[in-house]
## 1
Amino acid sequence: MNHTHRLSSEEIATYVKVMSDPTRLLIIKLVSKKEYCVCQFVDMFEMSQPSISQHLKKLKSFGLVEETRRGQWRFYSLNTASDAIGIVHAIMNQISDQDERYIELINKERPVDCG
Amino acid sequence: MNHTHRLSSEEIATYVKVMSDPTRLLIIKLVSKKEYCVCQFVDMFEMSQPSISQHLKKLKSFGLVEETRRGQWRFYSLNTASDAIGIVHAIMNQISDQDERYIELINKERPVDCG
DNA sequence: TTTATATATAAGTAAATGATTATATAAATG
DNA sequence: CATTTATATAATCATTTACTTATATATAAA
C-alpha cells in the first residue's frame, strides 16, 4: 500500500511550488537525511533568522516538515507521512548528494548549540 | 548515457518553479503525449490567447518545449533533449493519466482548425 | 527574577508573477 | 491587395513572494 490516494494535478502544482524556492528545496534535502534546528539553518544558509523561520513555516504549513521542540530549540525533520512524500522524493532524487551548494551547506554545519 | 551532467540544485529549483504553475504543469503533461497548437490550448484551458502564449513562451525560453511552425499554426511539443528532461519526467510521473483536470482538458480537445 | 538565547510573528517593501486589454506580426484566403 | 486567422508582444495591474527590520514569546541560565 504505497498511498491512499493520488494527488490531483492542482495539488501537485501546489507542492511543486512550495519546493520551487532554492532555499526550501535544500532545506528539504537536508531534513530528508536528519533533523536540524533553526539556528543551524541560519548558519548554513547564511540567511537571517526570520527568513529561515518563514521558509520553515511554509514547509510546515504544507505538511512537508515536522517540528519537535527540545529545550530551547525547535528541530525540523521531513514528514515522511506527508501526502506529498511521492513528489518530494521524486524531486529530491534529482539532487545529487554531490551537489556543490548542498556540500557547501553540509560543510558549514555546526553543532546545535549555536551560541 | 543517461545525461551529460547533473543539474545543480539551483537549476533544479528554477525548473521546478517553471513547472509550479497548474496551467504550465498540464501543458507539459499534454505535450509529453503529442503536439498541440496554441488555439487548442486556448480551447482546452478556456484561457485567453495571450495568457496561453505567455505560458508557452516561458516553457520555450527554459527549453522545456519546442515550437514548430506549420501553415498558420505553431505547434508545441516536449523537448525531449532538454537538460531538464529528468525533472520533467519525475514530476510528470506524479500526475495520473486519470487526473480529473487532465481528463477534462483532453475531452475539450478540438481539431487543429479551431475556427 | 533578571538576562540571555532561540525562535516566531508582524509590518513594510521591492520584485516577480499571471492575468487583462490593446496592438503588432505573419501567414492564408478572397 | 484587403481581410481574416493564428499567434506574439507590449503595457498595465493586482497579487504573491521573499526579503528586511522591529518586536514578541518562550525557554534556559545566572
Note: Chain B is about 50% helix and 10% strand.
## 2
Amino acid sequence: MDNLLKYIHSLTVFSEESWESLQPALSKKQFKKNDFLLHEGQICNSLFYIDSGYCKSYYEVDGAKKNTAFFFENDIATNISSFGSGEKSEYNIIACEPLTVVIFDKQQLFKAAKETAEIEALGRNCIRLFASKQEEFSTLFKLYSAQERLKYLEVNHPDMLQRVSLSQLASFLGVARETLSRIRKRRTLV
Amino acid sequence: MDNLLKYIHSLTVFSEESWESLQPALSKKQFKKNDFLLHEGQICNSLFYIDSGYCKSYYEVDGAKKNTAFFFENDIATNISSFGSGEKSEYNIIACEPLTVVIFDKQQLFKAAKETAEIEALGRNCIRLFASKQEEFSTLFKLYSAQERLKYLEVNHPDMLQRVSLSQLASFLGVARETLSRIRKRRTLV
DNA sequence: TTAATCCTGTGACGATCGTCACAAAATTAC
DNA sequence: GTAATTTTGTGACGATCGTCACAGGATTAA
C-alpha cells in the first residue's frame, strides 16, 4: 500500500486518521494477464489503483476489439460513467500483464467519504485527474493527424510506446495496424 | 437561478442550507456572442453553468481554430485541467450565442465545500459528469469513422446538429468542412 | 435596400488510409 | 529446442480525406 499512500499524498492533504478510515474500502488484488477487471455488461463498483503492471479498456465492435485507454502504475482505472450512474458498462477492462491493483469499493468509499471530508476530497481529485486524462486524449484526435498523434505519444508518453505493442497501439490511435507500421517507417526515414 | 437549482437536485441530495452556503460562490453573468469565457493563457478559476445559449472550447493551432467541445443548457463548461492544477489554459472558451451563465468561483466553492459536505459532493458529481462526457466523445474517434461519428450525433445529440453550423461541427468531428458536406450528401442519397 | 461578409456546395487532384494477402520475425507453449 | 502462435512488415488497390479554387446562397451591417 506504500505506493498508494504516496499517490494520495501527491493529490491532497490526507491525515493518518483519514488513511485509517479509508482502509475498509481498500483491498489488494492480483490479476493474471488477460484477466478481466471489468466485463461488458457488468456494473462498475470499483476504482482500480494500478500498483504494478498495466491494463487497458476496449470495446468489442462487430467482433473487433478497439482499445480506448491504457492504465499504468499510479493511474486510476475505472468506467467513470458506470461507476457514477450505476448503469452497465459498455466496455471491458483487462490486464495486459500480471497486474497488482488496490481496489476502492464504491459502497465503502462513499460511506467513508460521508464521514471524512478528506476522503470526499480525495475522491473528487481522483475523478478530476481521470477527467483531465480523458480530455487530453480526446483532444488528440481533434487537433492532430495519425502521424502527429504518434509523435505526441513519443514526446509525452514515451513509456506507453515502450510497453504497448504496435497492434494494440494502432487500435488506440484509431488507425489500422498496417497504417501505423507505415507511419513509423516514414518517420524513421526522415 | 431556478434552472441551476433543478440541475443540482438532479445530481445529488442538496438541502436548503447547502443552497444558502453555496450562494457566496455563485454569480450570474451575461456574455455577448464571441465574448471569451476563458482565454488561452489564463488560469481557469471557474465552473460555468450554462443557463441559456451555448459556447464552445477551441484550440488555435497554426492559425486554425479547432473545436474540441460544445456546451449547452444544463452543461458545466470549464477547463478541468487548468481548474484542477492551477496551470494556464491551452485553449479558449467562447460564447457562440448570447449566453447566460452562473459562475462557480473556485476559491469560494472550495471554502464552502470544506464546510458543507453536500457541496463537496456536488463538486464531485459535476466533475464526474464532465468526465463522462469527455469519455463519450473521446471514444467516438476510436470506434467510428467520420460518417459513423456524424450518425452518432444525429441519434444521440440531435440538438447539437440543429444549433451548430456545418463548419463548426466539422472541426469538432475532426474532418474538413468539405468532407462533412460530402458525407452529409452521401447519407441523404442512401 | 445594398454591400459586405460568412457559410455551404462542388469539382479536381494528390495524399493518406483501410483492406486483403502473404511472408518474415518474434514470442510463447510444450 | 522445436513447433505453434502471435506480431509485424510490405505490396497492391480501391475508398476516403485534405486542400485549393470558385460559385451560389444566406446572413449581417449600414
Note: Residues 165-167, 177-178, 181-182, 185 of chain B lie near DNA strand C (CB under 10 Å from a C1').
